[in-house]
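Deviations from the work plan: none for this task. Representative record:
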Amino acid sequence: MKIIKDKQIIENSWRHIADDEATGSGDITVSLSRWNNEKSTLASHSGDIGIRIAPADNVADIADELNNITLVAVELPAFTDGRAFSHARLLRSRYGYKGEIRAIGSYMADQAFYLNRVGVNAFEFENATDLALAISTMNDFTVKYQESSN
Amino acid sequence: MYQYNDDDQTLINERVTQYRGQTERYLKGELGEDEFRALRLMNGLYVQTHAPMLRVAGPYGLLSSKQLRMLAHVARKYDKSYAHITTRQNIQFNWPDLKDVPDILADLASVQMHAIQTSGNCLRNTTTDHLAGVCTDEIEDPRAYCEIIRQWTILHPEFAYLPRKFKIAVSGSEQDRAATQLHDIGLHLIKNDAGEIGFRVLVGGGLGRTPVIGKVIRPFLEKQHLLSYLEAIVRVYNLNGRRDNKYKARIKILVKESGIDQMRDWVEAEWQQIKTSMEVSDERYAEIQAHFTPPTYVTNAEQDNSFDANKEQSTAFATWIKYNTADHKIPGYRAAFISLKAPDSPPGDITDKQLDEIAALADLYSFGEVRTTHRQNMVLADIKQADLFELWQKLDALSLATPNIGTATDMICCPGLDFCALANAGSIGIAKEINEALDDIDYLHDIGDLKINMSGCMNGCAHQSVGHIGILGVDKKGVEWYQLTLGGSSENEAALGERLGPALAKDQVTQAVSTILDVYIKQRLDEEKFLDTVKRVGVTPFKEAIY
């Protein structure tokens, strides 16, 4: 599967692991609750660990650990659920997170512009044709009123 | 008024291009129904009973004559030659073709207008007092603050997918003419003990299914913190507002369920983190305020004698002055209301010809500007008293001088079952019936200050719950019924109307309104206004007369 990262289409190296699924090897993301429950065992995982932030999660809970995390995935279970926008904004502006923020779930290519503005720099889509479209929508506007992450 | 700079213009031009692409993808089947729905709503486009409805933003109700002419052009070219003024100072077209909307938006963009965020679960058009800058009870002109809020809301990247819609209103005067207590956020410009001007901030007001009066979340907010405080409220709402049930998703429910104290704690905690980084500087305010400097009034306007002479000679003119004009802060000037409540026309509707003619009158008499009001009328805000007679004659010839502002036939009314896909019952027809029943202008003036608000469904677009008389259309097994309430108000003493009794059949509504007015006339003391009588005697005498 290909994804967008920093406006380039690249091969994805991460797997999203369910809470009851074996971690296996390689780069994986886990839910925030699994991270909190299994931190010590996950520390010995062979690949990198990323954390998935569900809409109801509080990103402040991982504020102290962000230096050691290379990927935070913000989840949009439906395109109408706008909490991911605030999560990304807080990760960048309040907690100074410099790693990858990836939007995952069910959302529109047309939302890539706003997601990018609040600090999301990587995008996974269910439909591969959305990749090129999402990159183009990130250039929809050349002016803006609000300060944000981008 | 505010004039776009290159960046403002670029932004709305780019928005048109973006929406044109989205429309093309939808028409080619590349964009799903639900996805396009969200995108079109954020460009003001609903799909209604007969046709799409396009809602164009009237930023805090202020329009130039050039913009009015463009609205007339849009009405002629893309619609059935009329438009409709909404309770949030916007302008609606009821018959555009979905495929024409990008062209309409391009036409509007050419005169610095847009339909951005006039619908959808996002930050909506900011509204204010239609007498801003000219009224006699003003603490400070709110319009520069409105423009600063407008810019902050437009394409806000974090708050485009809120749990539900979000509306902000600002009042700069002692008398609240902007229904600020019934908005998600209401801002009142006030002066503190030290003489500094800032904002009293209210949160969680709203109409619709669950009408609630807003609560004070911060009694005094320093001006420089305006945007950081708004951002804190909306962020707290975005993260904590309910998304499981759209009828419980407005911020008023969050405030109700968490309590105002908890809400305040959340907002204050968030605000402390961002207040220094989002300050609005004095220079920034000055730059925007420069767009709202008063026009060049003549200094001897009050020396004119014709105004008093004309009032003496023409009772009709004197009546129009009494009901359809308001005091102005400059001696010798008045603000003139354009009544969009002529007896034979649906409340708030205006034709292309009327729009063009009003543009000409604005150019001739009122510095080329017009305002829309939240009671669905318009205002020419700066008329010299010497010009009022001529203006009145011209408005009268256009059927725009019905002397009924603030009276029973100045009804707020939604499009109802005739146009709206959400409605359960008709409203325009009942408005017409009430109008016909109250066609005696002397009787109307004897009744005096009365606000009748009528909505065709629970969503309450016509603010029935804060009408002095509220009428709510409901559907019972396919039949239209009407629930009446008494004693509501959206002004300083905001109150929700009390239910009068069981819903009435369609053919009983007009009679019930007449009965209510008869009871008022019997019960009132001296010059007591309708609302005061209802407050004093309660709903029982009215109830007994009707049921």
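The mean pLDDT of chain B is 96.
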